[in-house]
Amino acid sequence: MTELTQIRRRPRPRPQLFTARITKHVALATLTTLAVTANVHAKRGEDFSSSSPVTVIDSEELELSGLTSVDDIMKNMVANGTVSLNIRGRAEIADQEGKRTGQAYTERTRLGFETGEHNGLIANIEVIDVRSADDSLYDAGGTNDQPDKTNISDIEDTRLNQIYINYEIPELTSSIRVGRQRIELDNERFVGDVGWRQIDQTFDAVRLNIMPHEHIEGTYAYIWDVNRIFGPDADKDFESDSHIIRLSYDDASFGKITGFAYLLDFDGEATADANSSNTYGIRYEATRNLKGDSEGPKINYVFSYATQSDTGDNTDNYDAHYYLADVKYITDHGCYIGGGWEVLGSDDGMGSFRTPLATGHAFNGWADVFLTTPADGLEDTYIYIGGDLPDGFKGKAVYHWFDPDTGSRDFGEEFDAVVSKKLSDNATVLAKYAYYNGDAAFADRAKFWLQLTLNY
């Protein structure tokens, strides 16, 4: 590595990131003050939404609120809180051509606490812990020095998964959430929590949700850190100066149409610059009853288009496009069959359409071959069938044909299948299989999962 390259990769000063962190702490303090103030106005019989600007609350006003101190408010919220517990045990066996078989036997515990509500204000904290029976049996995303084994990106880690304050503003049908949080938008094609992996992807962000009309919903989020699934020791998290903008219109007779802008500017990790991009797009989804009967057969269709270009310190000068068309026939017995065509385009190999914040495992095959879009882009033509099976089981099977967006190479084919059963209100068991038959550019691989999830 040259001296110039070493200098290039040093984290650069980001005034925006410093400002965002200051803003975060100010926002937290402001939300607490708003909660107390709202309670005071409510006791006085005043409309908080039309009151004069917020002023400092003194001891007399706290007594009027029915509480003697902010400490009393916090104690009351904690006393009315709820605990959540998610335990997920999994065996994953992965075999890739040219590598030794990887075997991961992991257990994830996710423990959370959400306070009771006080005048629209709640707080949430969640800790996640992942343990492996023996992490020398697989390559944990390059974090455990097992490069000869097949990759399984489930690391051992304990982290603060979520910690946020959420403030509901009923007069405006809106909410503000500040802190570390999961963000899952639409089908998570562009922004998600990577929920299939044992460690979640979370965001240090401020998020505003608004619903100015019963059919209209909007989301804005500013993200200053992306906590990815590899853990802090892997040095793969993204520092961020990113904006998420989304507006939807949803009506049963029309369907749901969503416009979005994902303005992503990353820093801090080796691939961060290459994932900096501006994406603008639209998504439409609708379901139609074929016989005019809500219990009869239906057809569901989804169409989406987006355009993406480089931004920030991304050295790839490109413009690429995204297309999706998916049509599904749903029977009145809970089964379905469908197919689709998804394209992540390429600008003649100079740069390709990427979705770095997506729950990537859910798309383009469960073998996870195309989590990063190839330089030539990707065309995914697929068919699927699924639904309810005997004895309370549910299943789905998918077949993919992969091709580049530019060029004539064959990117291979893949077969995926999953079956699951809810054992009780708290327990679900799942078995899943993926087989990818590649070409010279992408190695053959097969994966199998057996999983038990407990939710409380």
Name a few traits of the molecule.
4 helices; 19 strands; single chain; 18-stranded antiparallel β-barrel; 456 residues; 11% helix; Porin; 2 domains; mainly beta
Number of domains: 2
Spatial extent as radius of gyration: 24 Å
Unreliably modeled segments:
1-44, 46-59
Structure annotation, total helices: 4
* CATH architecture label of the largest domain: Beta Barrel
Largest sheet: 18 strands, antiparallel, barrel
Strand proportion, as a percent range, falls in: over 45%
Helix share, percent: 10-25%
Please provide the count of β strands. Answer: 19
Task: Quickly name the level 1 CATH class of the largest domain.
Answer: Mainly Beta
Structural class: mainly beta
CATH topology value of the largest domain: Porin
What order do the SSEs take from the amino end to the carboxyl end, as H and E? HHHHEEEEEEEEEEEEEEEEEEE
Overall shape: it is globular
Distance between the first and last residues' Cα: 51 Å
| Mean pLDDT level | 87
